[in-house]
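Hi W., the adenosine-5'-diphosphate complex you wanted:
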Amino acid sequence: MKKKVKEAIISVRNLTAKFGEKTILEKIDLDIFPEEITVILGNSGCGKTTFIKNILRLYQPHSGEIKVFGRDVAQIEESEFNQILQKIGMLFQNGALLNSMNVFDNIAIPLEQHTNLPKSIIEKMVNVKLQLVNLENVREMMPAELSGGMKKRAALARSIILDPTILVCDEPSAGLDPITSAALDELILNLRKLLKMTIVVVTHELASIHRIADRIIFLDDGKILFSGNLDDAKKSEIEAVQNFFEVGSF
Amino acid sequence: MRYEDKTLYLEGALTKDTIAFKLEKLLLTEVSKIDLVKISKIDSAGVAFLDELKDRFDNPKIINTSDEIVQSMRIFSPQILPKTEEKIKENMFVKIGGLVVDHLVSVKNAFYLIADVFYWSIFGIFNRKGHRKGSVVQQSILIGMDAVWIVALLSFILGLILALQAAAQLRQFGANIFVADLMALSMVVEMGPFLTAIILAGRSGSAIASEIATMKVTEEIDALKMMAINPIRYIVVPKFHAITICISLLVIISTLVGILGGLVVAVTYLDLSPVAFLTRVFEVVKLRDALIALGKSYFFAWIIVIIGSYYGFSAKGGAEGVGKVTTKAVVASIFWVIIIDAMSSLIFYYNVKLI
Ligand SMILES: Nc1ncnc2c1ncn2[C@@H]1O[C@H](COP(=O)(O)OP(=O)(O)O)[C@@H](O)[C@H]1O
Ligand SMILES: [Mg+2]
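Structure:
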């Protein structure tokens, strides 16, 4: 296996996450390798969102070590972590566009905050990203005027505006029609190919998994039940994994 | 329904319309078999009925079931759910300890928030990154324009009321002119700042709490953090600046309009001349009073923003979480406005020689 030789871009060791007394994740180990598309699976409420938010320090892990780009994120200064964050794009479950500003301004936020680019350049960059997600004609609309799928695509445009090295998507295709969902997958594959992104996707959709997954992480009951490529997953002896690939649900 | 030899023979439809009646009539103590041969129809209520019978009579055998019934039972029978773990009863001290710890954590968080807000309010001014362009102006308009009419109206009415109440008494002693003293001091020192703060707590405090809470539950706050943007700087600080600007103007308006209300009463009811009234007002009010009043208004404003943000950031869950923290924020900010007001009165007026 050539890929295994590569050094992990995100590595998680012994991660435990809790809400109050309730343990959501228990002693999780995981490596994510550059330029791979890693799919995280698991039934709803099993802690997928909690997992990625712990990795990205949006939640404080209860214990464990997380390294991103080889740096232990608990140890570094805030300014260095902010540098790291700028190389990570995140697509939230419901888009999380700022409701108080229109689509264009939303997508331009990272550019305005972290670069000194002139307005004309910012405008061009935003337009390119909007074209990429097929939303050229909603530039001036407010998030509340968009459908769920459009919000997600706009949010995707925002998350890739700084051309991040890592892209994390929380259920990008949930609630989308199959065609839009397929287009989104196409886009994810292109981002990987063109921009050499490392991509982590939380999804339930079997079709989507077939299209994009290099590696599958199956979460269940706070632990990683299975980790490996699609073929191995299909041949897995583990009942829950088998079930999922036969029926397409949990 | 027939009962024979410990066997219960059910008949007809077993549906949500019939089972209540059947259950009522059922006074048996022992059933070992239930015969369903004459059942014509069964729905989910019927299946629940059979399950109920199973529980009641120590798992009797169900016999003579048609395919249809078997299928219904497969679909509608409750699966055996795992028992929810029984919570270990905490002893009282653990509970109290937990509450104290929770409380200390929230006090700590509140202090971090206060420190962050003040730090970025001062140092953020010199750095154009980290906040939205034009947001202070926008927020000022939102806070100020929204409140100015209601502040003015209520202050005027309050001025009228205060003056009227006093006028009846003062007239008896021929001390008409003292209505000016009363109006000037009460509006400048107490009522102007206080009324403004209460209105701002109700309007802007709740708006701040609900805006931030909504952003929290829709993951917008997380999204900001992921874009390496400090949410306090981006959202709270512009509001902090805006309310600081607005409250001074609003307090001045409230005080002046309140005194104007007093003037109306003085002229119409106490036959004072406007000039005499106003001259008296300016004689009575000292600069010190005005400065103290302005100073404490800033504290009112800051506590309103900070409490609104604190509760906003603490929101959990969905839309109902937003409503909850909004109410809490308004109550808490009014509470703290009164406390700060009391403290400032104690410090500055209890013993005038103190400062
Ligand atoms: N802020 C929170 N406070 C308390 N419990 C939470 C919170 N967020 C999520 N949970 C709980 O953690 C578990 C995992 O949630 P989540 O990670 O959102 O699941 P998923 O994304 O896999 O659907 C759920 O049981 C949920 O109830
Ligand atoms: Mg989730």
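The interface with chain B takes residues 53, 56, 58, 82-83, 85-86, 88-90, 92-94, 96-99, 101, 109-110, 112-114, 155, 159 of chain A (CB under 8 Å).

W.
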